Amino acid sequence: MALLLTWFLVAWLGWFLLFCSSPQAVVLSSSNATASLVERAYYTGYTLTTLGYGDFVAGNDNWRLPAVLAAANGFFLFTLSITYILNIITNVIQKRQTSLTISALGENPQQILASTSGDGKFATLVSQLQPLQQSISTLGQQHLAYPILHYYHSETSSKALSLAIALQLPTSHQLHKHTVDKVKPDVFFWLLSSFDMIRGINMGQHWVNEEMTGCDLGDARLNQRLAVMLEALGDRPDKSLPTAFQDWANTKAAYRFFANENVSEDKILEGHFAASALRIQATDGPILILQDTTEFSFKRSSPEKIGFINESTGRKMKEGRHLKHTVCGLLMHASLAITTEGLPLGLTAAKFWTRNKFKGTEALKRKVNPTRVPIEQKESMRWLDNLQRSTELAGSPERCVHIGDRESDIFELFCLAQDLGTYFLIRSCVDRLAEEGGTTISQVMAETQVSGTHDIHFRDKRGNQQQATLSVKHAKMTVCPPIGKQKKYPKQKLGIIFAEEKNPPEGRSL
Description:
Elements: H1 2-19, E1 26-28, H2 37-48, E2 56-58, H3 61-105, H4 109-115, H5 123-145, H6 161-167, H7 172-179, H8 185-211, H9 220-235, H10 241-245, H11 248-259, H12 265-281, E3 287-298, E4 308-316, E5 322-339, E6 344-353, H13 361-365, H14 381-394, E7 400-404, H15 411-420, E8 423-426, E9 433-434, E10 439-440, H16 441-446, E11 452-459, E12 465-479, E13 492-501
Parallel strand pairs: 3-7, 7-8
Antiparallel strand pairs: 1-2, 3-5, 4-5, 5-6, 9-10, 11-12, 12-13
């Protein structure tokens, strides 16, 4: 409404200024007296609205044609406005109806598949997906025709189309799990392609706006440029900037964007973090938050301008020594939230950094005991920072399970998780002291009975399918802090899971 009102006021102002340019432009019909400014504004208004009261008229033939054009302009403006508003209202209602249709199928993917399976052929689901595809496709075209539809969001999750598509429709993994043995292959692949098509249409039209809702770079032009860049890079994620943006003007604009002092990775990701929080709040059950570090390496003639990552061992030289060189680049430590079914919900925290000078870990260990160094002075602090930020973003510490590899086996992380009331699952790196300090975790687990077995399927490095049967033990025990930190941190009561493959086959190529 504000946009339409602005259009009308601009048209009114423009014609008013034109009619003020000559004394003979507007006169009183009864006496041909020159109209005042207020009377000219009144004349302009009723001419645009095509009311035509007749108390004021054009002063001569030269001003009758502009009056006709003003009336035509007003008629066109009002007709266009009414048509535009009606189309917007119709499409917003259609969005909500489509969302309610999806919600009526079931509250979650498992319920949808269970309620529509029928005799096992999923005929009900097939019949309901056909009109749903057409409806989603039509809405996609309407979003292209009326971009303002991107800004209409429902506060009720059952009426929010994007949430319904993302969280309620089955993923390919869920579809395979529930239907692959029950339906013919052609039906299964039709269902799979249908769900993928629906998601593709939805994401193609909405994702940039949804990921930028909470993003503010302090300048509307920067926000608009970021949206253009995200859309281009989303279409060509594996391409360089010039290839992704297709022309030199947009490429130069992208480089200027990155060079702007008001732009930072935190501000760029701010909107995405907010969108991740909304997706987490719209789901039920545990949220798995995966943490890991990624390296971005570059080849530069002046590596110190970027920073250093590590020292790499290259080819063997004639004298027998290996050539070593320092790798330059950036590091990113990110936390990704997913559901227990494997549906990604988005990043919840990310940290970027580089090293002014790389010092090998082994060289440092010869001089300093790493367990004596405060965690705040280590790069390992990133694990604690991400755990805290992710927990705060999710808003439900009791639902979060933070998962990390061996590098996250940090006692300070155990203590922080307890303080925040959240959970974690990490792969152990250190055989820590347990109970009263007279034994270790591995010694306690060696005396624990096997709880059961678990089969895992994987491929070796040659691509051959392999299966491993693991014996699984679990126990709760008291874990002690490192000796150098026992005065600072309390003991922790932790659940330990021990999995080991018994009798692995000889010659297996991992």
